Amino acid sequence: MIKKLYKIFTSRMFWMLLIFGLQFVGLAGLVLWSAVSKAYYLFFIGLSIVMAVIIITHKENNAYRLIWMFVLIIFPFLGGVLYLLFSNKKIGALSEKKVADFKKRQPDETAFSLENADKELCEISPVFRKQSQYVKNVTGFSVWKNTEVKYFDRGADFFPDLLENVKKAKKFIFVEYFIIDQGKWWNRILDVLKEKVKEGVDVRVVFDDMGSINVLPRGYEKILQSYGIKAIAFNKIKFHINPRLNFRDHRKIFDIDGNICYTGGVNLADEYSNDIVKFGYWKDDAIRLTGSACWNFTLMFLRNWDCLTKEWDSLDKFLPTVKGKDDGFVQAFDDSPLDDNTIAEDTYLQIINNAKKYVWITTPYLILDEPMEAALKIAAKSGVDVRIITPHYPDKKSVFEVTRSNYEPLLKAGVKIYEFTPGFIHSKNFISDDEIAVVGTTNLDYRSFYLHFELSVLFFCSSVIGDLKTNFENTLQLCQEIHVGDEGKLPLYRRVFRGAARIMSPLF
């Protein structure tokens, strides 16, 4: 108990929350004190009215607008200030300009004699054409053949495979993860990265400062730099109220020579391989791509690196040199809060709307906005077999209650929901009609859709779809089905809390 308390009180997260809390209380006190004055009273009321007009007229998700209107009504003095501080969903014009500059410098694949499969996929199916062309038109990332795919249905299989391929790197290694933890697997990987630096391999690491706040010491990027590794912490935490702290790099990229890439739900931490048990058995998955489709990952990483470091690389140094065995069509793409497009959610919506037989979904969080909930209901009512697997044990109790608050409306529409009973399931997958699937880092929640930097891999007619389906069916054997009416069996206070949580869900 003493050790646990010591760990809590010495953690960066504790001190960050404490300092933020004190700042918020001080700000609220100042606003309320100022409201005693008639002039200030009118000022803050006027500010809230102006913010209300902006909320109503601004192009925004309806649920997000509703919750902010609710805040303004409940806290008329403080609401306008809160909206100014926390509603900012842009990282800044400078960052947007950097991304635009990178895209201008990025030549078409034909300049590198790379042959994408955009045209070939479009000729196979009009549905595939719509899905793929939307992604290409919005993100600029093509669809590829000549790519071998390997699926890992648990982290314990992913880590040894990753370690073996890292040892084979010749030119560069790009690592970008939400969480990096100094444990068994990261320490082994780091030892290899140190050796590769000595061999002249270009090693670069990006980790999210918030995601790793409880597992890495402050300034960990400097420790990596001391080994010769180029490293940077994404969106470093500043100990003052700052809406930009909401924007996190939730992506997972391990890019080896531009020829082998890994992604999925697995972070570089030991609980993902169940070497450490935190929330029961941790169920997760990952994929390995070998071949042409890795080019999209390389571009994603370099675009981010360019924005963070202002280093401009000649892209032709990082081209894939290996053509993998054909395994359908593969299209990796990113999603970010830097534009007005919710690419990941739109991709999910297209899959749901185009489904003829089934849509099976695995997600750790089920916090739906209006379009996603409506699409799932319509599909189920239309006779499509819609199934969703979520965790039975939470990693965050409040978010878990918000997830469960979304069950009842879906169940009444015919959606089947199952909870993974051995522990926590962290996989983020969509599978439909044995033809199309998505594996990636994007959760079904507001943060992933609107605030986080994410990535997804879209598969058409690939063997990985069969692997995902088999894994889903096997996982169902370890789940309990949730039924209509289960909510009504809960104590009244739990039902009231879930109702309130559902209203507040855009904030989670």
Write up this protein.
With 508 residues, the chain is an alpha/beta fold. The protein folds into three domains: 2-86, no CATH class; 149-322, Endonuclease, Chain A (2-Layer Sandwich), CATH 3.30.870; 343-507, Endonuclease Chain A (Endonuclease, Chain A, 2-Layer Sandwich). Helices cover 45% and strands 18% of the residues. It contains 19 helices and 17 strands. The protein has helices at 2-9, 12-35, 38-57, 62-74, 79-86, 93-105, 118-124, 126-139, 155-166, 184-198, 220-226, 294-309, 343-354, 370-381, 397-405, 407-413, 446-451, 463-476, 492-503; strands spanning 147-152, 172-177, 202-208, 230-234, 252-256, 260-264, 281-283, 286-291, 329-335, 358-362, 385-391, 416-420, 423-425, 429-432, 436-440, 454-460, 479-482. Helix 3 crosses helix 5 and helix 7 (118-124) packs antiparallel against helix 8. It is globular, with a radius of gyration of 23 Å. It starts with a helix and ends in a 5-residue tail after the last helix.
In short:
With 508 residues, this protein is α/β, with parallel strands linked by helices. The chain is built from 19 helices and 17 strands.
Chart the SSEs and their pairings.
Elements: H1 2-9, H2 12-35, H3 38-57, H4 62-74, H5 79-86, H6 93-105, H7 118-124, H8 126-139, E1 147-152, H9 155-166, E2 172-177, H10 184-198, E3 202-208, H11 220-226, E4 230-234, E5 252-256, E6 260-264, E7 281-283, E8 286-291, H12 294-309, E9 329-335, H13 343-354, E10 358-362, H14 370-381, E11 385-391, H15 397-405, H16 407-413, E12 416-420, E13 423-425, E14 429-432, E15 436-440, H17 446-451, E16 454-460, H18 463-476, E17 479-482, H19 492-503
Parallel strand pairs: 2-3, 3-4, 7-13, 10-11, 11-12
Antiparallel strand pairs: 1-8, 2-5, 5-6, 6-8, 9-16, 10-14, 12-17, 14-15, 15-16
